[in-house]
Amino acid sequence: MFTYSYPHFHKGRILKTSMLEELRDYPRDYMELYYRSYADGILAGAEVEVYPDKLVVTPGMVLHKGRLYMLTESAELEYQATGRLNVLKLRFTEDEKLSDMTASHAELRLNEEATCDSSEMELARFKLKEGARLRRDYQTFADLATEFNTLHVIHVAYAAEGVSTLSPLVMKDYAERLLRTGTSDPQDLIFAMMCLNEGTIARSVILHHIANRLGLEYREYDNAQIHRYLDRILANAGRGSGRSGMPVGGPHRMIVD
């Protein structure tokens, strides 16, 4: 049955174990129930800031295998220019059973494996040439995928209902650039406002936007493919083209008298 309970602490009453357990379990149970249908990924924060010799991960919260992991203070990790792929990951440890609690941690790691195993989660990736500066300022939407000397967040999974989705940083960048094209297509305006206002956008919504704007059949794409299709939509919008390259507002007729 559905229940609601709240312990009362009154002077002169015995402090029971069940009362303390209620306080311990309620916040965790609430959060785990709220996110039980969500796929793994970042829920909030955990953004990667770039400095000349280190990466800093900001405080945040991630969901992994139904568990919520909190980072309450910024964490740092040094990096070097190797010219090869480096992937910043969280590596989740096995449960550690102590006398008064069970704990599991997620540690920052840099390695050259592009994929993550079941105990890992990607936060960013990059290829840095010697003598170059790693950057996180993107001149164009396509620049998000520049191969060298650029911090990539395209492949980062964000927690969402059913299936993980793209970083809000990627989608907000897309939305702002889409609006700056001056598009008057209602689909563009609605989608852009949704990206700017709601933060995390469901993957299916992004895929429907791509299918409708490019006249494609709805299908699944990986994050890199989604980025390329969104960049194509931006290019079309910049030329005043809508679905399948047609002018915004549909085909125009010329009447000759």
Total strand segments: 11
Q: Taking all residues together, what is the mean pLDDT?
A: 87
Strand-residue proportion: 15-25%
Structural class: alpha+beta
State the helical fraction: 25-40%
Query: Taking strands numbered 1, 2, ... along the chain, how are they ordered across the largest sheet?
Result: 1-4-5
Task: Spell out the helices and strands N to C.
Answer: HEEEEEEEEEEEHHHH
Major β-sheet profile? 3 strands, antiparallel
Radius of gyration: 23 Å
What is the CA-CA span between the terminal residues? 76 Å
* Global morphology: globular
Poorly predicted spans: 1-6, 244-257
User: With helices defined by DSSP (H or I, 4 residues minimum), what is the helix count?
Assistant: 5
Organism: Paenibacillus amylolyticus
Protein name: DNA and RNA helicase
